[in-house]
Amino acid sequence: MKIATYNVNGVNGRLPVLLKWLKESQPDIVCLQELKAPQDKFPEAEILEAGYHSVWLGQKSWNGVAVLSKLEKPVVSRTDLPGEDEIEASRYLEVKIKDLIIACIYLPNGNPVPGPKFDYKMRWFERLDAHAEMLITSGKKVLIIGDFNVIPTEKDVYKPEKYKNDGLFLPEVRKALENLISQGWTDALRHLYPTETIYTFFDYFRKAYERNAGMRIDHFLLSPEVVPLLKKGEVDKEVRGWEKSSDHCPVWIEIEESK
DNA sequence: ATGTCTCCAAAATGGAGA
């Protein structure tokens, strides 16, 4: 079973790219982030035509997350994290598909630092942390997937020194991700490729993709029950070079079918 | 500081967000 994540950066503006990638890559399940579309402007019909059921959480202008599935229509279990969201942003969508619990997340970017956006990111992280703890103790097959807006280590960005003061790479942000992972989660791509350079995002600025000046910020966190099922994982890097591409690449993993 | 791209606004450029 192939499970993917893709920050599309505008689901309607990117629809041709999304559909082309779906057709070529044929994932079974897809988590999308940054829909940038209100609830009633999600291209459900076109995506259904491509063979995918979808559930989504829209928002005017910003944010927005969705889960697509070829297998069966995802059953929504949560549309936000427990606790107060003072900004009411569409950033969390948790679904059940077969025996999997999938949390599709779009963690706040946090820039500029310091400031209210960074504070919001850290509060969001705390809420994610608390809920993830509940999920992992459930003993179920859980995957937290999406755009974390966190560069986990120096290995995960082309020039770490340039990002020392960035909201994606500050020590406290990396520590927050480490803390979360230390609950018992596995970073799937890093697990598969312990030492390789892996980038999932390339800025539109200054030909970042052409220069391979990227970073790894889109992640799959697997609960212990999922780790033994993990077979493969990859970044569909060439998609970033397509006309009208998002600044993120699609990323996917393959897990063994549940018996 | 800048670079680029999207969406949105009492609508054409310009701000916000990333």
Kindly summarize this structure in a few lines.
With 259 residues, this protein is of the alpha+beta class.
Characterization of the model:
The protein has helices spanning 15-25, 44-49, 116-137, 171-181, 188-192; strands spanning 2-7, 29-33, 53-57, 65-69, 75-78, 92-97, 100-106, 141-147, 186-187, 201-202, 214-215, 218-222, 230-235, 251-255. The chain has five helices and 14 strands. It is an alpha+beta fold and 259 residues long. The chain has one domain: Endonuclease/exonuclease/phosphatase (Deoxyribonuclease I, Chain A, 4-Layer Sandwich). The chain is 21% helix and 26% strand. It starts with a strand and ends with a strand. A six-stranded mixed beta sheet has the order 3-4-2-1-14-13. Strands 5-6-7-8-12-9 form a six-stranded mixed beta sheet. Strands 10-11 form a two-stranded antiparallel ribbon. It binds one DNA strand of 18 nucleotides through residues 9-10, 12-14, 34, 36-37, 60-62, 109, 111, 117, 149, 203-208, 244, 246-247.
